[in-house]
Amino acid sequence: MKKLLLLLFVGVICSCQSPNGKVTTNDERSKIIKTLFKNVSEENIDYLKEVFSDDMTFVDSRNNKKDKAGFIAGVEGLFEMFDEISFEDVDGDATGSEIETTVYDNGIVWTNIWNTFSATGKYTGQKVSFPFHISYQWDGLKISREVQFFDNAVFDKELNAMQAANNVSEKLVILLELKVTKGNTKKDVQTLVKKLNDFVRANEPNTYDYTYFISENGKRVFLVEKYLTSADMVLHANNFEGGPNFAPFMKMFEIDKFIIAGNATDELKEMLKAYPIEYRTSVGGWIY
């Protein structure tokens, strides 16, 4: 009886630990992904157009989503930014870069690749190399979903350089030279700036730089703001003028100089026409 119970117990444990899917490295789908990356290194977009389904979904590491047209445009942008694109060889021994496909018991199929992207930036001239992981979900032998898991900083840097070279960046840098009004101390400024910072962080996700610098005597403040687009600064201006911070700001500071650097839109210029703004456009360099 004890032996029977032991066998039943072992059987239950084994059934609970049975795998939920089968992993292979030399299957047809793994081979398709290997061919896909070969074509990326050769900058051949036609194979990607063929292997991805028309209703595919692309998701990057920032949870930005694209359809097939947006995804293909993104890959073509990659070719525009980099030369000498290459990846490490894969051989199925799990000692380095690999491609593996998992067929789950419920019929869902994913292929995963971990590898290293290497290339030379066309605009920075810099050689880059970084590890990445990408997962592909399948619909038959077509890729229906791509999900990326890696830092996009290398791509962002080259994109900034490309946009600067072509003077098409939408990013704006705002510079304000401010005088602290009479009777206000450094502590008063710090208290107000904390409220301003908290408000901007909570309400303006695309205001990616917002910093106040104060002089040693506490009488002058230099404010630096950066926005991804003119529309993001329009949002900031609406929040500022229609929100709780306009009156305290104007009571604390006098605007001595107001500069907007970058390709400001006509909508933004019209909105801010009441302010004494000097507009400047780029003649070189880039904005982070």
How would you describe this structure to a colleague?
There is one protein chain. The chain has nine helices and 13 strands. The chain is an alpha+beta fold. The chain is elongated and about 75 Å long.
Overall geometry comes to elongated
Largest sheet: 8 strands, mixed
Arithmetic mean pLDDT: 92
Which structural class best describes the helix and strand composition?
alpha+beta
Helix content: 25-40%
Write a short abstract of this structure.
The chain is 38% helix and 34% strand.
Supply database-style keywords.
Nuclear Transport Factor 2, Chain: A, 288 residues, Alpha-Beta Plaits, five-stranded mixed β-sheet, 9 helices, single chain, alpha+beta
Question: What topology emerges from the helices and strands here?
Answer:
Elements: H1 2-16, E1 21-24, H2 28-41, H3 45-51, E2 52-59, E3 65-66, H4 68-81, E4 82-86, E5 98-104, E6 109-121, E7 127-139, E8 142-149, H5 153-166, E9 172-180, H6 186-203, E10 207-214, E11 220-227, H7 230-242, H8 246-252, E12 253-262, H9 266-271, E13 277-280
Parallel strand pairs: 2-8, 12-13
Antiparallel strand pairs: 1-5, 2-3, 4-6, 5-6, 6-7, 7-8, 9-11, 9-12, 10-11
Helix pairs in contact: 2-3
